[in-house]
Automatic annotation (TrEMBL):
The keyword Transcription regulation applies. This is HTH araC/xylS-type domain-containing protein. One of its GO terms (molecular function) is sequence-specific DNA binding. Residues 30-134 form the HTH araC/xylS-type domain. InterPro entries: Homeodomain-like_sf, HTH_AraC. SUPFAM superfamilies: Homeodomain-like.
Length: 145
């Protein structure tokens, strides 16, 4: 399929999704958002759906159902999406220009550089280094104008 051997996930129709009460879905959705947006737990490479479930006093099936229903993706994809958004910021912020791709990768929670590059490329269609270079080139053009 391409440089990083990415395969599309097939949509599964898990029966348990329809068994989760709407109120519980809303409640867990808000809690998951807090964990990701405020607490930034995705930066911990070992933070799993199981740890999230324990922290929210629920089980992984409910976490999976809520992530599927409200975020329209699986847990790993959600984690990677937040990590890549964070990486985009770090890659373009002047304060982090001295950081290597490995350092940025570790800062946002990837266990290794390969996973970082694969997820970044899957989501944005460009490598992290390519993204940084594009941004720097645009910045130089803007400075000239």
């Amino acid at each position: 399929m391409g440089k990083y051997n990415l395969t599309e996930k097939k949509e599964k129709n898990a029966a348990y999704r329809s068994l989760v009460r709407a109120e519980l879905v809303d409640e867990l959705y808000e809690k998951i958002l807090k964990v990701f947006v405020v607490d930034k737990k995705y930066r911990d490479p070992s933070y799993s759906a199981k740890k999230l479930a324990e922290e929210l006093n629920t089980n992984t099936r409910y976490i999976s159902a809520v992530v599927n229903i409200r975020f329209h993706q699986n847990y790993s994809s959600l984690v990677n999406e937040y990590r890549i958004k964070d990486a985009q910021y770090l890659l373009t912020d002047k304060r982090y220009m001295d950081k290597t791709m490995e350092e940025i990768s570790a800062m946002v929670g990837f266990a290794n550089r390969q996973s970082f590059y694969a997820a970044f490329y899957k989501i944005l269609g460009v490598t992290p280094r390519g993204y940084r270079m594009e941004h720097l080139a645009k910045e130089k053009e803007t400075a000239k104008a």
